[in-house]
UniProtKB/TrEMBL annotation:
Annotated segments matching region Disordered: 282-301
InterPro entries registered for this protein in UniProt: AB_hydrolase_1 (IPR000073), AB_hydrolase_fold (IPR029058), Carboxylesterase_BioH (IPR050228)
Domain AB hydrolase-1: 22-259
Organism the protein comes from: Alcanivorax dieselolei (strain DSM 16502 / CGMCC 1.3690 / MCCC 1A00001 / B-5)
One Gene Ontology term of the molecular function aspect: acyltransferase activity
Gene3D superfamilies xrefs: alpha/beta hydrolase (3.40.50.1820)
Assigned keywords, A-Z: Acyltransferase, Hydrolase, Transferase
Name this polypeptide is given: Putative hydrolases or acyltransferases (Alpha/beta hydrolase superfamily)
């Protein structure tokens, strides 16, 4: 299905579940596509929600910005337009770039009505080294890949904790194949003009602005962090909990920054449990939980 974002851009999404069910809007990270949420979206639909997984501007099937504008301002304007077009107040689940976009958008615009916010491995304070590693990975492969096996090997090198994919056909959803036969990531290379590591000199998302937005949030919040994440540290998570004292905090073992992909079923269980228990979120003793996942070792994607 199609949404209309800022500047009239077409933003494409997949929907799982009945359109009359409570909506959940899933926002992927930079360099990903809506297909990163496939398993979670199906599980949410099975649990009685209507899950919309959205391709951000310049990613997947959504339009590329003619001006190459992938700024935080543009992403927030897109999200605002999508929220206003949904049939009911959504829960928003945002990973990495998607989480920062949601945090900024909801914190700065009190007129946007949402049920809850789930932040996936992201907070105003990020670790420059981890962010830089993502950006270097994205820059390194701009010349594309000759085979899907090369794509698989590149992903495995970046995230060695996740077993290599045996079904290479699934990788094609995140790739474009040009007339020269080579495979390229399914995002606009101009996105890299905005993506940079969080430093004092500035970044795609300004830390001070994110902190102010976090203080102004007026929705239940769940923060999920991957134990092995090199992007969000426990220090960064703790600082967010200081900004949002009522937020809940869950740490998933056997997961890095790509939390949903590394431990999908357990991640989805944590989201569903949070949605189920939201009415109790104002009770002082249950406001913040630091749960550590120690479930089975079966690889999940």
């Amino acid at each position: 299905m199609r949404f209309t974002g800022s500047d009239g851009l077409n933003l494409w999404a997949s929907r799982h579940g009945e359109d009359t069910a409570p909506p959940v809007l899933l926002l992927h990270g930079g360099g990903q596509t809506r297909h990163a949420w496939s398993d979670t979206a199906i599980a949410l639909a099975d649990a009685g929600y209507c899950a919309f997984s959205l391709d951000a501007r310049g990613h997947g099937e959504s339009d590329w910005s003619r001006e190459g504008d992938y700024s935080a301002r543009a992403l927030a304007a897109d999200l605002s337009a999508v929220i206003r077009s949904l049939p009911a107040r959504p829960v928003i689940v945002g990973a990495s770039m998607g989480g920062l976009t949601a945090l900024l958008t909801l914190g700065e615009d009190a007129s946007l009505d949402c049920e809850a916010l789930v932040l996936v491995d992201v907070a105003p304070r990020l670790e420059p080294r981890g962010v830089r590693r993502i950006i270097e990975f994205m820059r390194h492969h701009q010349d594309g890949f000759e085979t899907l096996e090369q794509v698989r090997d590149a992903i495995t090198a970046y995230n060695p904790r996740r077993p290599p994919s045996k079904d290479l056909s699934g990788l094609r959803k995140n790739l474009r194949q040009h007339s020269n036969g080579r495979f390229y990531w399914h995002w606009d290379p101009a996105f890299l003009n905005h993506a940079n590591a969080p430093t004092k000199a500035g970044s795609m998302f300004d830390r001070a602005r994110l902190e102010l937005a976090a203080r102004q949030l007026d929705v239940p919040v769940l923060l999920i962090r991957g134990y092995y994440s090199d992007v969000l540290s426990d220090r960064g998570a703790t600082e967010l909990l200081t900004l949002i004292p009522e937020a809940r905090y869950v740490v998933l073992e056997q997961a890095g920054h790509m939390v949903a992909g590394d431990r999908n079923s357990v991640f989805t269980e944590a989201v569903l449990q949070f949605l189920k228990e939201r009415p109790a979120a104002t009770e002082p003793e249950s406001c913040r939980t630091a749960a550590t996942e120690q479930h089975h070792e079966t690889p999940l994607s």
